[in-house]
């Protein structure tokens, strides 16, 4: 089911960021990490959990992806359009690699990676196709089938809070389609009741 392309979302993965070692024993400035992990359920992002299909990036626009720190475009490390950022896909997920530039921000970043203060990566992306599942045992689940554009890969200090308001639009679209299929009318959520609470009550009614 094709979806409208909404505004960018961000997701965080706890994965090791490495400084690649050189055989000569020299200090390396090559940074490598995983920005995306495939087919692995996330923690609950407020009211749902999700996973990313291994083929989600098959037709993704990655012509101008930047590597930045904490999603801050002012702290730029590398870029695919200038061929200073390399992206690759393997069985685990999508990895990124770049040679840290000789800038104050990059030098500080390398020191923090060496100390183990920075361990996670995040990525900013736009979804084109996803599926929603209402499971009576596991709750609401989302599978991202196709990413239309990858915007950045970003080593981060703290996990970015998932922008669930963006995903909510896609979920509402899914629910409306289900209502049309089942001939249901519009559901009114009472004042003071959150969407998550209303969805939980709906699950109780259905199951």
Tell me what you see in this structure.
The chain is α+β, with helices and mostly antiparallel strands and 207 residues long. It has one domain (9-163). 21% of the residues lie in helices and 38% in strands. It contains three helices and ten strands; from the N terminus they run E-E-E-E-E-E-E-E-H-E-E-H-H. The strands form two sheets. Strands 1, 4, 5, 6, 9 and 10 form a six-stranded mixed sheet that branches. A four-stranded antiparallel sheet has the order 2-3-8-7, covered by helices on one side. The longest helix has 19 residues, at 164-182. It is elongated and about 65 Å long. It starts with 8 loop residues before the first strand and ends with a helix.
Give helix % range.
10-25%
Order of helices and strands: EEEEEEEEHEEHH
Strand residue percentage? 35-45%
How many beta-strand segments? 10
Structural class: alpha+beta
Subunit organisation of the chains: single chain
- Mean pLDDT, all residues: 83
Low-confidence stretches: 186-193, 200-207
Which radius of gyration do the C-alpha atoms yield? 20 Å
* Count of DSSP-assigned helices: 3
Biggest sheet: strands, sense, closure? 6 strands, mixed
Overall form: elongated
């Amino acid at each position: 089911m094709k979806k409208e392309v909404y505004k960018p979302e961000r997701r965080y993965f706890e994965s090791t960021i490495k400084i690649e070692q050189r055989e000569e024993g020299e200090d390396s400035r090559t940074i490598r990490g995983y920005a995306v992990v495939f087919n692995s359920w996330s923690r609950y992002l407020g009211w749902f959990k999700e996973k990313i299909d291994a083929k989600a990036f098959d037709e993704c626009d990655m012509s101008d992806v930047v590597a930045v720190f904490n999603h801050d475009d002012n702290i730029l490390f590398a870029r695919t359009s200038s061929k200073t950022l390399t992206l690759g896909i393997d069985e685990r997920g999508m990895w990124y690699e770049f040679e840290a530039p000789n800038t104050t921000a990059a030098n500080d970043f390398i020191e923090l990676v060496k100390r183990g203060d920075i361990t996670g990566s995040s990525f900013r992306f736009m979804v084109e196709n996803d599926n929603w599942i209402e499971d009576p045992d596991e709750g609401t689940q989302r599978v991202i089938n196709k990413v239309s554009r990858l915007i950045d890969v970003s080593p981060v200090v703290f996990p970015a809070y998932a922008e669930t308001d963006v995903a909510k639009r896609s979920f509402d679209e899914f629910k409306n389609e289900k209502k049309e299929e089942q001939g249901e009318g519009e559901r009114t959520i009472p004042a003071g009741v959150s969407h998550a609470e209303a969805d939980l009550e709906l699950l109780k009614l259905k199951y």
